[in-house]
Amino acid sequence: MTDNIRVLIPEEKIRERIKELAEQISKDYEGKSVHLVSILKGSVFFACDLAKRITVPVTMDFMSVSSYGDEKVSSGRVRIVKDLDETIQDKDVLIVEDIIDSGRTLAYLKDLLGSRMPKSMNICTLLDKPERRVVDVDVKYIGFEIPDEFVVGYGLDYQQRYRNLPFIGVV
Ligand code: IMP
Ligand code: MG
User: Fold this and answer.
1) Domains with residue ranges and CATH for the chain
2) Does this model's pTM top 0.90?
């Protein structure tokens, strides 16, 4: 199953970086609770591991948007497939994403969720491909900056496969 996949970020490095991010988030949200909005399906592995390491009270909700279909390139369109279960009004929201590529998905989500009156809203992404940015988005927490290569594993898929790889790899 892992044929032709080159390891880009090994499991241990992901674990260490998540620990650091969680420490930073716990410090920044001291005295508050943080409402994690995990974007399905890619960010689920990351959101769960991050949540376990955060020391302030955590609540979680999930949202599914589609921008890519099964293609490797962005269509530029974003569609809500599953909305949040709970209101985010007056909550300190932290959007958790797997990867920022063009930035279109997050720019759209930031506008949409921002209009629902959260107390605050920040973004945390495991991976960032800065070279690919089309729309500018302000991201507070970034796990790793990576080169412009299509990656899979640790939640990320290619045609719905490879999400369960424990590392980030290049197809
Ligand atoms: P954006 O709207 O172009 O920033 O796209 C973000 C979404 O595209 C992510 O949430 C992923 O679902 C998907 N995506 C972008 N790059 C990759 C990649 O290298 N591997 C897997 N999915 C990707
Ligand atoms: Mg995604």
Assistant:
1) 11-149 (3.40.50.2020)
2) yes
Which residue's CA lies nearest to atom 9 of ligand 1? 99
Q: What would the pLDDT profile of 5-28 be if each residue is shown by its tens digit? A: 999 999 999 999 999 999 999 999
Burial class (CB in 10 A: 0-12, 13-18, 19+), 11: middle
Residue 137 CA to ligand 2 center (angstroms) comes to: 15
Which residues have CB less than 5 Å away from ligand 2 (the ion)? Answer: 42
| Least reliable range by pLDDT among 1-5, 79-83, 138-142 | 1-5
- Give ligand 1 pocket residues (Cβ under 6 A): 42, 67-68, 74, 97-105, 150-152, 156
Burial of 70 (0-12, 13-18, 19+ CB in 10 A): exposed
